[in-house]
Amino acid sequence: MWKKRVLALIILALGFGVATFVYKSEYKTNKNFGQASHFLQNHQFHLGLDLSGGTHLIYKADVSGVPAGQISDAMDSLRDVIERRVNLFGVSEPVVQVEDGSIVARGEEKLIIDLPGVTDVEKATKMIGETPLLEFKTEAPKGTAQTATVGKDGKVQIDINSQYVSTDLTGRYLSKATLEFDQNTREPKVSLQFDDTGTALFAKITKENVGKTVAIFLDGSPISTPVVREEIPNGQAVISGSFTPTEAKQLVGRLNSGALPVPISLLSKQTIGGSLGSSAVNAGVKAGMFGFLIIALFLILWYRLPGIISVISLGIYISIMLALFKLIPVTLTAAGIAGFIISIGIAVDANVLIFERVKEELRLGHSVADAVKGGFAHAWFSIRDSNISSIITSLILFWFGTSLIKGFALTLGMGVLISMFSAITITRIFLSSIDFVGNGKVARFLFSSGFGSGESKHSINN
Fold it and tell me: Is residue 334 located within the same domain as residue 409?
């Protein structure tokens, strides 16, 4: 018995700790707790566009240089690159979607980007625009016409872009970039490693251009124009020059964040205000609190001691769910919150099934301790079957649904799993930790007004 009581106290302490984390991590400063730690500040709730607003961007992808059979792969690669890029800027759960242009016409591929919480359009476009387009170009054949431009000083200058021709080797085939330092001069340099396709392309380029210049262009501007001394078959290139350590580090960061496989141009940009807004979020929180209080009042009045225990168990369940939303993290939308609220109802339903089974056991004349044990054993099968069906439904919705439906399915599925733990394990441990002696009226009275007089319906007469 004492082991169960110690375990119940440990669960209470852990539940209080989780609830404290949920509360403290939502505020950078609090009059009761002071300045929040860096860990807590990085685990606030992530709200979707419909609750917090954000930025909606549409880019057009230039796939004119991509073979028709590789457009789909190039667009998928572009989407992955942009997702990695915006994540580096702390944008949580960006929604990056590809709009296939094959339905309309080839070359009309678009990239649609939703950035929750980013209401500064200029900042959003800047973080996308800074993503580099890495290209390797070779010397233009002799006799090729070159473009001349007139500079601000009035002098005629040869356009460097006309001195080189594009190759098939782009940042699409870049695996990684690393910062290194020359062992002799200690000057910083950037090392590039290509994938298998890039290695083959780079080997071909260096083999055909020994003694010639292969220019490395970043966003249309040359950043290095090295001369090829020999064929390089291993797919490793080094960008060196008058880099400062800071410049080299920034370049490595930009390259690793994803060199764009195809160029993109911004078609439209829009700031989206939260359709529900902060006032609606506050109203939803208040409604949830009042709803929980009403449910708690019903459970306590109808089931008494088990009702109090179930309320504590539900409180721990809600704390665990909210903590998981912060730690995973889950981007909360209106649909996701709806799934969470439904999961609370499922958790309450599990407790009701258990307590009703306990009532049946008591009416059969069993002791309170035996009734609790039997009630959990008999209710488990109903809870298991109903929750499994809910989990299967959630999986189907998540697999086949849109992003909006996936948010609902994710929170509902998580809630069902955690509610099984809270209803079956936590509530059971709490009830089992209480020592019910015999089959007295006091013990029965503590259980429920719905259990009747507490006397057994069976009797033996002389």
Answer: yes
